[in-house]
From TrEMBL:
It comes from Lithospermum erythrorhizon. This is RNA helicase. The keyword Nucleotide-binding applies. CDD domains: DEADc_DDX6, SF2_C_DEAD. GO terms for cellular component: cytoplasm. Residues 1-28 are annotated as: Disordered. A motif (Q motif) lies at residues 69-97. The keyword ATP-binding applies. InterPro entries: DEAD/DEAH_box_helicase_dom, Helicase_ATP-bd, Helicase_C-like, P-loop_NTPase, RNA-helicase_DEAD-box_CS, RNA_helicase_DEAD_Q_motif. The lineage of its organism: Eukaryota, Viridiplantae, Streptophyta, Embryophyta, Tracheophyta. Residues 100-270 form the Helicase ATP-binding domain. It comes from the Eukaryota. SUPFAM superfamilies: P-loop containing nucleoside triphosphate hydrolases. Residues 296-441 form the Helicase C-terminal domain. Belongs to the DEAD box helicase family. DDX6/DHH1 subfamily.
Length: 460
């Protein structure tokens, strides 16, 4: 009896099509035709997408040193790929290239990776890909140590997954308890938040985690500090035994190692911290009396070519003082600090992210895991006392891997030892620019290229 191929052509006895052609050759031809049709359909679909303008800034070698994988190589859902492309992502960064396929395979991961390398995208994509939209249950939990980080991660998940029917919710100690309870009465697939708030909801039976198959821990070293570790461990017990855990951390302290040994199953370990943490940052300092700092900052901001800038101060009073001086100069700026209401800080950061203002003056509040890609200048009005804070201030803003990023440190005589220690511990070079360099530009034109050139002219 003859059979019919998938295209309706009769198959004669002996496996051919009545033509004597072996069946295996016919199958190869059919698959080739199918593959060509799929490729053609894919290229047509991709050609219709509206990509953001290409990025013309120089990108550093630590980001370009990949095998050139595209996100489409991971066989992601087309709706997710659409969100990825609309964000301007097409090729992967090293941490994305290394971790995404492992996460999609289902293995636990511990990744040591510096800030500003695209790690948030590295865990958001597998989370969105593995969610079953038909199952109205919490399937992924992203734990972060601060509200700012939670807002950032949830915002990115919503943007990447906007074409998926995935419900993303954020809950932290700074959000409304009543609103969060009402939100969890509705279907939620991906929950982002701080450990304390999510554990509270889990213990009350409001957040049901029995279907949560993936736990992501961003800034795991901070999540496993004495403040958070007991809470995280309790939270894990509400999840299935076969859950997948993805951990991302800049360091590997003893508490982190103990946690890995106890809760992760044969984890895939990624270590990318051998790279210089501030590669791509052009850093300068100038010795200046404290009373002169305001004038130097005003000169920098008025003469440099700046997309957006952040100015860090070491105290609330210093932030308010500098913001007041800017107002006297007629120079627009936003400012926030730790004594302001959280809602106000969130609103200011939202407006700053959306380019409502080019300059933000703040304490270290804003550095707590806020990714603002348009920032290309950071000014340390007051230099921090330790290298970790310096790295947080300087290393997490701007587009990862881009070299067009300026850091200016205003140093008093008393700060010199802190500066040397920061250089040594971060294995970085901070070049000196003499204070008198700025004087010729008070009434003239100055741009960042002139500023970079000056360091050469001064023999630095």
């Amino acid at each position: 009896m003859s059979s019919t191929s998938r295209y309706g052509a009769p198959r004669g006895g002996g496996g051919g099509r009545g033509t004597g052609i072996p069946e295996n050759i016919v199958d190869v031809e059919e698959k080739s035709v199918e593959s060509e049709a799929v490729d053609r359909s894919w290229q047509e679909w991709k050609a219709q997408l509206k990509f953001p303008p290409p990025d013309s800034l120089y990108i550093t070698e630590d980001v370009t040193a990949t095998t050139g994988n595209l996100f489409e190589d991971y066989i992601l859902k087309r709706e997710l790929l659409l969100g990825i492309y609309e964000k301007g992502f097409e090729t992967t960064s090293p941490i994305q290239e290394e971790s995404i396929p492992i996460a999609l395979f289902g293995s636990d991961i511990f990744a040591r990776v510096n800030n500003g390398t695209g790690k948030t995208v590295a865990f958001c994509i597998p989370a969105l890909e593995k969610i079953d939209q038909a199952n109205n249950a919490i399937q992924v939990v992203i734990l972060v140590p601060t509200q700012e980080l939670a807002l950032e991660a949830s915002h990115l998940c919503k943007e990447l997954g906007k074409n998926l029917k995935v419900q993303v919710m954020v809950t932290t100690d700074g959000t409304s308890l009543k609103d969060d309870r009402m939100g969890l009465d509705q279907p939620v697939h991906l929950l982002v938040g701080t450990p304390g708030r999510i554990l509270d909801f889990a213990e009350r039976g409001i957040a049901i985690l029995k279907d949560c198959s993936m736990l992501i821990m961003d800034e795991a070293d901070r999540l496993l500090s004495p403040e958070f570790q007991p809470i995280v461990q309790q939270l894990i017990h509400f999840m299935p035994e076969n859950r997948q855990i993805l951990m991302f951390s800049a360091t590997c302290r003893v508490t982190v190692k103990d946690f890995i040994d106890r809760f992760l199953h044969n984890p895939y370990v990624i270590d990318m911290t051998d790279e210089l943490p501030l590669k791509g940052r052009t850093q300068y300092y100038t010795f200046v009396e404290d009373i002169q700092k305001v004038d130097y900052v005003e000169t920098l901001l008025s003469k440099l070519m700046i997309n957006q800038s952040i100015i860090f101060c070491n105290s609330v009073n210093r932030v308010e003082y500098l913001a007041k001086k800017f107002k006297e100069f007629g120079y627009p700026c936003f400012y926030i600090h730790a004594k302001m209401p959280q809602d106000h800080c969130n609103r200011v950061l939202h407006d700053f992210r959306n380019l409502a203002c080019r300059t933000l003056v703040c304490t270290d509040l804003v550095m707590k895991r806020i990714d603002i890609q348009d920032v290309n200048v950071v000014i340390n009005f007051d230099i921090p006392k330790n290298s970790e804070t310096y790295l947080q201030r300087v290393g997490r803003f701007g587009r990862f891997g881009h070299q067009d990023f300026l850091v200016m440190n205003l140093i008093t005589y008393e700060d010199r030892f802190d500066l040397c220690r920061i250089e040594k511990e971060l294995r970085t070079e901070i070049k000196q620019i003499q204070p008198h360099y700025f004087k010729p530009f008070i009434g003239g034109e100055c741009n960042r290229d002139d500023l970079f050139k000056s360091s050469v002219e001064l023999g630095e």
